[in-house]
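Throughout our pipeline, every protein is held as a single compact record rather than as scattered files. The remainder of this section carries one protein's record, kept here as part of the documentation.

===
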Amino acid sequence: MRLAIATDAWTPQVNGVVRSLKETAAALAGLGIDARFVTPEGLPTWPMPTYPDIRLALGAGTAIAARLDAIAPAALHIATEGPVGHAARRWALSRGLAFTTSYHTRYPEYVRARAPIPEALTYAWLRNFHGAAVRTMVPTETMRRELAGWGFANLAVWSRGVDTALFRPRAGSGLGLPGPVMLSVGRVAVEKNLEAFLSLDLPGTKLVVGDGPQRAELERRFPAAVFLGVKTGDELAAIYAAADVFVFTSRTDTFGNVMQEALACGVPVAAFPVPGPLDVITDPAVGVLDEDLAVAIRSALALDRRACRALAESRTWEAAARQFAAALAPFPAAARAA
C-alpha cells in the first residue's frame, strides 16, 4: 500500500516528530507499506514567529495538492497542523477521501507560554482540525484521556519505539566532566522548562544537548552548565551512554522520545510526574518522577542501569508501526483508481 504522510515538521529540524515519522516509515516498509512524505522541502518558507528555527510553507496549497496527486496514495496521514497539514486536509476533503491525523505537540500550552491566548481557544481550533479525520493518533493512553476531556473524538494510541542498536550502553565511555553528569536533550525553548533543572544546586555537571531560541539566554544565566548544541547519530548515543542520569524537564511534551533513548543507553530518568514521563517511565526501577526535581535526580542516580536497558529492549519501532498501520484509513478501491 502506498501511503502519503503530510508533515510541516521535517529536516533540518531535529525533534521527536521528525524522528518518529522517519523511524515509523522505515518500519512500515517491512509491513508492506510504502510511505511517501509530503513536506515543505523545495517550497518557499517563512520563519515561525518567536521560533525562527521552524519555517512554514505558507501559501503552498497548490504545490501540496500537486504532490499528493503525483503520489496517488492509497491512504493519507496528516502528521501536523501547519500549512502543509492544512493543505493536505483540504486536498482530501475536496475529493471526499478519508484520512488520519496525529497529535504530536501540545500547541495550546506552547502558545500560552508565549502569548496571552487562552488554551481553550487553541484547543477548539485543534479540535476542528482533527475532527475531520477518521482517527487521530496520540502517543499515550494518558494523552488520549486528556484530549478526550477536551472533546476530541476517534482517538487511537500510536506509541513510540527506540533504536536499541544505536542507543546502547557503551563500555568506557566518558566525557571528562565532573560527575555526576546530569544530561538533558531536546529543544532549548521556554516550553521545555529547562530553568527548573539548571537552577538546581547540585554537585556535578549539568549537560544540555540541543538548540533553540532560549539557548543564548540560558547560557548567560547559567554559565556553569555545559551546552553542546545539536548532536545526532552515534555522537549523540555516546553522550547518552556517558551520562549518570537523564533529566527530562518538560511538563508539556506528549511523549518524550529522548527518555527512551536514555533508557536504551542504560541511563535512569528523573522527571516530573506529568503526561509523557508517566507513560514512558512505567517501572520505578528505571526512573523517578517527583515534583521536586532535585529529589528525583538524586534518587535516580541510585537505580540499576541494567533495568533501564531491559525496559527499552521491549519497545521497538516495529511494534509502534503496527499500531500506526492498524489505525490508517485506506481509500476505497474506486478512489484509488480515480
User: Anything to note?
Assistant: The first strand starts at residue 2 and ends at 6. The CA atoms of residues 108 and 125 lie 10 Å apart. The chain is about 40% helix and 15% strand. The mean pLDDT is 93.
